[in-house]
Here is the input.
Amino acid sequence: MNIIGNIIKGVIDITEKLTPESSPLENQKEVLKNLLEKAKGTAFGKFYNFEEILKSDAIQKRFSEAIPYFDYNKINEVWWHKLHEGHTNITWPDNPDYYALSSGTTGKTSKRIPVTQDMIESIKSAGIAQIIALSHFDLPPSFFDKGILMLGSSTDLIEKEDHLEGEISGISAHNIPSWFRGYYKPGEKIAKIDDWDERVKKIAKKAKEWDIGAISGIPSWIELMLNEVIAYNKIKNIHEIWPNLEVYTSGGVAFGPYEKSFNALLERPITIIDTYLASEGFIAFQARPETDAMQLVTDGGIYFEFVPFHPDYINQDGSLASHAPALTLDDVELNKDYVLIISTVSGTWRYIIGDTIEFTDIERAEIKITGRTKFFLNTVGSQLSVNKLDDAVKHLEERFNIKIKEYTICAKRYDGEFYHSWYLATEDDVESEKLAESMDDFLKEANKNYRVARTKALKGVKVKTIPASVFHDWNAANKKKGGQVKMERVMNEDKFSEWEAFVEKN
Here is the structure.
């Protein structure tokens, strides 16, 4: 009998049973009130008169009326730049302890997003809630005393003036609780290695010394790491070296497109748990096995609003029109796309995080990420969100029995006419023309706007297959290898020209 594992599992089970059920709606009202109370003395709070908002009988409504939407560029130009000039108490009391560096999937220069100590505590609290939720999954007691391998960005943060800077995964790992350090792999020394390839080689060399029960990270980079471990140790699959591996905690992007190639690295199926940790905070995690949707963390340090994802409300650059309505949890509907807006304990206010989501269960506040506001493919009226693109890729995998590890797409003009031009990462041998035809047929059935677009301005589909290494090299060339990096799913024509030149060269 695994004594330690049984004890830990028992504690988690009891904690879950003793934790009272809470109402996401009431949680959110309390979170907003607390945010306004704490920030009312800041420059931002005084400018937008938080004191008066707090006196309102309808705080949520008054809040949305009083404060405009902010994307990163706007809040940085108007407010956060003052922090870098030595001012304090700007959008949150005092100064942030960290800045999360995020180039995202569209920006050419890193964003510097404030991460306060309040946000660190919020992330820790959400992490504990996720651990407690493991009681809902059918995991053996032995799982609960195994190592957890977290593959993110380097924890060797940059010291700058009165704060530290790095990617959010590195900041989070830098702040792991002391009680967790015994489980945490690859350990402090390896986690500090900045060069991603070198860090993965160290992991491969040490792998046989660890008894790993769970791994965590972005799917594309986790796959590369697992392949390196398998190749270095001359084994057939990862379970030969980590026989107790039971859980993969995925994050950053939808796991669906990676499922087939990921499973090929395993001896047997494992539990996949989705999480939603962004540079701006820990937003959601999968709390139960009956669904792959994620539950919003409604009782932490984040207040959520939801703008209907409608062309009338979305500007060409992915920003929101000022007249776009913001809904609360009270108002949302199932299976409709919304632009996610957050206000947080790091001093982001009515902030457009850039993701679109849909609700699968409103009472539980469960969501799925459906795409990015800038990655909504609507150049010729096709109105394809990333989840529809993911579905199309998965269809090809099943239809042709192939593995597609990455993809990108652009609505590109050929001799003045638009085609959806796809690049698919696969080593399998299949004719591009057959892939294009099957992709086209699937999307016509799955999306009525696409079907209409194909009778008008959208003339067809073109597909090219290339090795997955080209996608990884592209990210590396753009100084984005490892960590929180996600491949651009949808590119504009200028970026796509750069991409095609890179592919041709490599």
Q: What stands out?
A: Residues 377-505 form a domain with the GMP Synthetase; Chain A, domain 3 fold (CATH 3.30.300). The first helix runs from residue 3 to 18. DSSP finds 17 helices and 18 strands in the chain. Residues 260 and 398 are 9 Å apart (CA to CA).
